[in-house]
Amino acid sequence: SISGTWSPAAVNTSVIGTTTYTFTPDAVGCGVPTTIDITITDQITPAFDPIVSFCVGATAPVLPSASLNGITGTWSPAVVSNTASGTYTFTPDAGQCAAPVSIDITVTPAITPTFAAIPAFCAGTTAPVLPAASLNGITGTWIPAIISNTTSGTYSFIPDAGQCAEPVTIDITVTPAVTPTFDPIAALCLNSAAPALPATSLNGVNGTWSPAVINTATTGTSTYTFTPATGECATPVSIDVTITDQITPTFTAIPAFCAGSTAPVLPAASLNGITGSWVPVIVNNINSGTYTFIPDAGQCAAPVSIDITVTPAVTPSFDAIGALCQNSVAPALPATSNNGINGTWSPAVINTSVIGTTTYTFTPAAGECAT
């Protein structure tokens, strides 16, 4: 219980080393001065293995509860974030001559793999190949692994392990192939002028034909294939063209008729339905002749000719009848001429009661070609 004073009066911890402190008793009392030595030691810096940067979203490392040099303590924050970089401070537990220390932990943002756009392509053509690495150097695999050449779809790129990259998807469009359409080509007539095969379909597809030209030299059905031009998203298509033999127009025979009688009218259509026109147009009722039927355009029919006979009219001949005596018995007028023409007379009977000359006219019977 000796009171007194110290020199120095306070312990100085700012200097490393040993300092001697002297206690001097107060004047009252029987005490002698005494000294004590106080040693100040340097603080230990906790040491840790470096924590390498890791990819955002990956499992974050666990902060150690003790340093490599045996200092225990706590961390603030206590848990490493796997989304953002940050500073983590280690505070040594009490009673250890150790200083707090901070470490920086980097969370690397994930790279988005980039790829050149794959343009739409035509269904049925060769599909493009998916690249094994992105434009920014990320390797990985695709799901699905192969592009369909029939259906549009979504393809997912999964980066290989160990790369700080995120999955990405791309959409690839497969354009349905158009079927070229054409107006049908009706059956063509043998050896007729063939229409040109169109270079462009009704729905706008350009292309070429094989064979390139319709052949009308042979009867039957031939197939012509249209192949779309390069770059046209269209399928080949075929059409059939039929070449038919020419129809021969048929007509009821026109019997010979007597010259001078009413001529028959030429028909506007054949017995087998072919319409057309005649050359000459009207039958001559005086002279025999040939008449040609020209089928109207668009009918697979050949011109045909018919002969029409005009029979010259016969002049009936009779024996001469000499002068007769008044009131004598008159001869009968013959019903048939010397050259075989039947007919009737007007007047029908010779009249001998009147003196003079009378004319008697012989009219051939119907069907007799005579004047």
| Percent of sequence in beta strands | 25-35%
What is the global morphology? rod-shaped
Structural class comes to mainly beta
Helix tally equals 0
Mean pLDDT: 94
What low-confidence regions span 5 or more consecutive residues with pLDDT below 50? Answer: none
The secondary-structure element order is EEEEEEEEEEEEEEEEEEEEEEEE
What is the spatial order of strands in the main beta sheet?
Answer: 14-17-16-15
Q: How much helix is in the residues?
A: under 10%
What kind of sheet is the major sheet?
4 strands, mixed
Our Rg estimate from Cα atoms comes to: 64 Å
| N→C terminal distance | 191 Å
Number of strands: 24
Description of the molecule:
The structure is a single chain. With 371 residues, the chain is an all-beta fold. Helix content is 0%, strand content 30%. The chain contains no helices and 24 strands. The chain has a four-stranded mixed sheet with strand order 14-17-16-15, with no helix packed on it. A three-stranded antiparallel sheet has the order 1-2-3, with no helix packed on it. Strand 20 and strand 21 form a beta hairpin. The chain is rod-shaped, with a radius of gyration of 64 Å. The model has no long low-confidence stretch (mean pLDDT 94).
